[in-house]
Design a protein that fits this description.
It is an enzyme of class 2 (transferase). The chain is α+β, with helices and mostly antiparallel strands and about 290 residues long. The chain has helices at about 10-20, 35-45, 60-70, 70-90, 110-125, 155-170, 180-195, 240-250, 250-270; strands at about 50-60, 95-100, 100-110, 130, 135, 140-145, 175, 205-215, 220-230, 235. It folds into 2 domains: about 25-180, Reverse transcriptase/Diguanylate cyclase domain (Alpha-Beta Plaits, 2-Layer Sandwich); about 195-270, no CATH class. A 5-stranded mixed beta sheet has the order 2-3-1-6-7, with helices on both faces. Helix 3 runs antiparallel to helix 4 (about 70-90) and helix 4 (about 70-90) packs antiparallel against helix 5 (about 110-125). The chain starts with 8 loop residues before the first helix and ends in a 19-residue tail after the last helix.
């Protein structure tokens, strides 16, 4: 009998070190995106006794910090926020940095406990951060997504993006829980963004002209042209809804040019003026 033995202690230690590097964020020392995705997959396939919730946190104000105080202040701020979040959650909860100014927390407990945790996270982020460049003040937006069995990792991340987007729209320092209506709103935005590209060619855009009346002079002093969109299936779309979509899609310049050309064409056909009163001798044309 021949026995061949090899000491694997050093190799095992190197593998553990490489694994720690692969699943750790060097800036904060927290788990990174790959680590939290692995934990999220485990929570979906092997549920715990308590319900799980994913909190997606996005910091607001880092761009201003970088412009005013430099990258070192950004690094110090992100590291401090990570430390505060880790101190805010329970020991079994997972806090990870997703990259940039985004963090994720995989927590376990009831919906009410998750909401209270989100409020605490908002509060600790808003506390001033002391850096070598001075005080830094940040805010955050949080999306709250329940971990449901049968839902994949990508679906959970998509829901968290929708919830964070809704929190951003609500204002700074808000948390929003995902529900089905957010998905319906996202689907509507995607449809409008897609259909807006050919709306002008299909003749769906038009201008609504409204008179501007001077009560003191008792006459029409001008005309206001408002851009409108009559969608083929959704009907009238308010400008407040589709103009921001056009700005993000890079279509706003085309819409502005078409609106100016159309308004100028209509204005050139308007009469020069009308009498102000019934007497031709006392009246003068309006401009």
């Amino acid at each position: 009998m021949v026995l061949y033995c090899r000491d694997m202690t050093e190799r095992h230690a190197r593998e553990q070190a490489l694994q720690a590097i692969a699943y750790a964020d060097p800036m904060t020392g927290l788990p990174n995106r790959a680590a939290v995705l692995r934990s999220l997959q485990d929570a979906l396939t092997d549920p715990a006794d308590a319900p799980g919730t994913l909190l997606m946190i996005e910091l607001d104000g880092l761009a201003a910090v970088r412009a005013n105080a430099g990258r070192e202040a950004v690094t110090a701020s992100v590291a401090e926020v990570g430390r505060r979040l880790r101190a805010t959650v329970r020991g079994e909860d997972v806090v990870a940095r997703m990259g940039g100014g985004a963090f994720a927390i995989l927590a376990y407990g009831t919906d009410a406990e998750a909401d209270r945790l989100a409020d605490r996270c908002l509060a600790v982020v808003e506390q001033p951060i002391v850096t070598t460049a001075g005080l830094v003040e940040l805010t955050s937006s949080i999306g709250i997504v329940p971990i449901e069995q049968g839902c994949g990792v990508e679906a959970v991340l998509e829901r968290s993006d929708l919830a964070v987007h809704a929190a951003h729209e609500a204002g700074k320092g808000y948390a929003r829980r995902y529900d089905a209506s957010l998905g319906d709103a996202a689907a509507r935005r995607d449809l409008l963004r897609h259909d807006l590209q050919g709306a002008r060619a299909r003749g769906e855009l038009y201008l609504l002209f409204q008179p501007i009346v001077s009560l003191r002079e008792r006459r029409v002093t001008g005309v206001e042209a408002d851009l409108r969109w009559r969608h083929a299936t959704l009907g009238e779309i308010p400008a407040a809804e589709f103009v921001p979509l056009a700005e993000r899609a890079g279509l706003i310049g085309e819409l502005v040019r078409w609106s100016l050309e159309e308004a100028a064409t209509v204005a050139s056909r308007l009469p020069a003026g009308r009498p102000r009163c019934g007497s031709a001798r006392r009246c003068r044309p309006a401009t």
